[in-house]
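Proteins fold reproducibly. Look at a concrete instance:
___
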Amino acid sequence: MNLAELKQRVRTLAGPDIEARLAEVEREQGLSDPDRLLAQLRDRRLISTSLYTELAAGSPIEAGPAGPRVEPGRSSAKGSSYALLGLLGRGAMGEVFVAKDLELRRRVAYKRLVPEVRGNERLTARFFEEVQVTAQLDHPNIVPIYGLEVGEDGTLGYSMKLVQGDTLAELLEAAAKTAATRTPAEEHERLAAHLDYFLKVCDGIAYAHSKRVLHRDLKPENIMVGRYHEVYVMDWGICRIIGSGDDAQDPLSQPAAPDESARGRTQYGAVMGTPAYLSPEQALGKNPELDERSDLYTLGLILQEVVTLRRAVSGDNVMVLVAKAAQGVHDPVTHLRPDIAIAPELKAIIARATALRPEARYASVAELAADLRRYLRGDAVLAKPDTPLEAAVRWIGKHRTLSLAAILGLLLAGAGATIGVLVWGRHELERAHHHELALGQFLDQAARHSHVLDNQFHRYEAALEHLAGRATQLLTDPEPPGTDYYLTTAFDAGRRPPDTLHSDYDQLPVSIGWPTIQLAPGVSPDGPDVEREARTLSLLGPVFRAMFLKSRGDVPEKIPAARARHVLLHEGAPIVRAFVTLAEGVHSTYPGTGNLPADFDGRQRPKYKLAEGTYGVRWGNPYLDRRGHGLLLPSAVALYGEDGRFLGVAGFDLTFQFIREKLLALPDAPAAEETYLVDEAGQVVVQSGPGGAGPLDAEEGDGRSTSAQSGAAVRLQPLGYPMVVAAIRERRTGHVELAEEHKVVAYCPLESLGWYYVVVANAGLLFARPAGK
């Protein structure tokens, strides 16, 4: 297309605001070539990548003499068959251009190694393997390769189909931004369309797996959706042939910077892939052991993102994301809009695809796709088999004409019997229908509220990760700002922080502005780096304070200082105490207090050992607090420097009182009589309702948590419903109807803790029909 046609298309597609910028580019550059003008608009971010691709590929058909011909103003290697028109994108290893095939005159995408790694033999070999493997994957949903070039300097590059469209990530981001304006029916249509794209991805990956090829870097950014709904899996840069003996370590080291941008980038090193989309096996660096179920796990995370319009694994930095991936932790399957319900079958499919143990997942991507297609057809899915009643209802729903004919036949055959049978049958059908509706509503309420609880614990984890991140940042800063610090040993002698006041909540003098510092036995305040570390940890006072307020649901930036002080001193928060203990023996505790024994060594405490040498947030066993805060749940996370050196542990104690009083009960469910948090062994941790607060037995001495915590040990008792206990121990989700006890018990997993939320309803109240019905 000529320059005038291009400018007109730019104005039409980019909108009237582009006019002034277009004139500015022309004036500054004096451009008369359409391709160069287009490249300038893209480089200045005046048009999007997808619009640039569309315009660059929209030139009319050309024909002319054969043979390479480098046109003026083009970037091209000597003897190359391609003229590079403009940069599309750049990654850690490769850069992609829009290019023109000078012989066939078509627009293509051209990928080559970035200059920084062109001398690296290992990465050059990996790049060569990428193009070889991709070229042999002949499938409609895998981007086709056109040709390979080797420049005179040995630089590799290859051309492939230039896809006009958007990445799946861009489509999901756009859908999330407009989610609030869509009706539930429109959201259902959006999901159906995006699930169709996802199934095409599954088809392409299933084909690759049949050729024994793993992708290892699946993510929405690497999935292109064309203008005519064609779908391509892109970027096979770290693909691996199963059984090829690939090294566990890649020559590029994994970036350790905890910045936001690194979360979505492909990482190299012992951990290969994109942090937010790693399988547990990838996160643990088990590269030679990976098989098809690793890609399948990642597809499960992408499916969750397609369904919920939010990323499946959230975290502030790369370290957190990798730690969560290693443990198979992902966020609850809840829609971006709370009022949009997600089908239990979809949740079950996602749960099976993202099971921690590979053997618990689908056997193949083809099986995942088949189960998703069953859901879309309205059939029962393998991940959540129907009960007999659900199967009957599903059959009737799919065969309404046949069902009606059968019922009419029965009616005619029994016409000579009694009308009473008809009446009884009608009432029985109505009763069964009401039963299923009431049960479904109850189970949906329980599942939704389990997500509320799960989200609450994930928020606690996020608060702890933020504390750990800030502590790590300060500790690794070569010149952290100095501040005063206060030793616990001097606290009782009167050398206290200036804001120390008596706390009605803790029943002792505390500071909410400063943590206090305790040095382990044998650690001298004059020792190397001890004073620096003590001053550094004292800078965490505002972070501790904000964490406590956030645990209540307050916004620290908006709450007045006087109100915040009153809350922390007199009302308390779900988090009752927090700490950071360093490997060198410097321990900080918040709220600042002097109530620690002289021989206290934070490194010997159970919470320190809970997280030492691990990654990600760890939850310990509950215990009864000696200071009167009731049942506490400890949580801790290890701190590591950018070089991987272990620095120490951060953690907190969480009281169950807030959970029990504010969150545990199932709202708007009059039939719900009791609610529980039950551990993975089926033992009651805490409950609300007539049974009391739980646990059922507490004593000083050896109990379940004596070896793990200080304070009164807790002897937990099993939940009083053996069928539910058995299901929990098998990690199942569902419900039981106990006819003799007139109870319905629903049990839903909490992914954050590995525990279960259990709700017991009175069957008589739950299934009671309104008067006159």
Remarks:
- The first strand starts at residue 82 and ends at 90.
- Residues 61-77, 246-263, 695-711 have pLDDT under 50 and may be disordered.
- The CA atoms of residues 323 and 615 lie 5 Å apart.
- The first helix runs from residue 3 to 14.
